[in-house]
Request: fold
Amino acid sequence: MFFYTKMLLVFATNNRNKFNEIRDLLGGDFKLLSLDDIGCPDEIPEIHTTLEANASGKAWYIFQRYGYNAFADDTGLEIDALNGEPGVYSARYAGNTKNSEKNMNKVLRKLHGITNRKAQFRTVISLVQEGKEIIFEGIVKGTILNTKRGKSGFGYDPIFLPEGSDKTFAEMNLSEKNRISHRAVAFRKLIEYLTEK
Ligand code: IMP
Reply:
C-alpha cells in the first residue's frame, strides 16, 4: 500500500519566481502547491493597512476557502523620515501602474534636502497550519541614496544601500542579495520552522 507522507502546503502568491525559489529551498518533505495547483483563480485582495494583515489575509483566505495549510508574504520599504512610507503601499506608491521608476522618483523627491536617509525593507510571512497562525519577519536596514545606482533586481533596489555594504541591491547579483535580503531572512525562518517540526 502507498502512503503519501509529504506535507501539502500552498504558497499564496502569483509570483512564479518566488514560488520556484521557495520550492527548491523547502526540500523533499513538502509538496508545495501553487494557486493554480489548487484551482484558485482569484486575485486575493491586499486591502489592509499593514504588511502583517495583508500576509495574514492571504494565508487565511486559502485555509478557509480551500482547506489547505498555506503561507503568504508581503514586503514594504519603510523610510524613517517619511514615517514608514511607502510601507504597505510600496508597489503602488506613485500610482496603480506599479511603476518602479516613478515609485523611486517619488521617494527621491520627498527626501530632497532631508539628511535622515535611514530605511529598512521588511518582509512579513504568515503561515496558517491547522487553523493556527505564525508570523515570521525579515528586516534589512540601510539608507536611501540621492541617486539611483545599478541595474539588477527590481522595485526600489537602485536607491537602497544595505548597512555595511558599498553596493546597492541593484549592484548585487541575485546570490549576493539573497545572502542578506529581508525576504531571504524571513523565508529562512519559515523554512527552519517547517523543517525542524
Ligand atoms: P511584494 O509584497 O513582494 O509584492 O512587494 C511589494 C513591493 O515592495 C514591490 O512591488 C516593490 O516595489 C517593493 N519591494 C519588495 N521587495 C523588494 C526588493 O527586494 N527590492 C526592491 N523593492 C522591493
Observations:
- Residues 53 and 102 are 26 Å apart (CA to CA).
- The chain has one domain: 7-196.
- The mean pLDDT is 94.
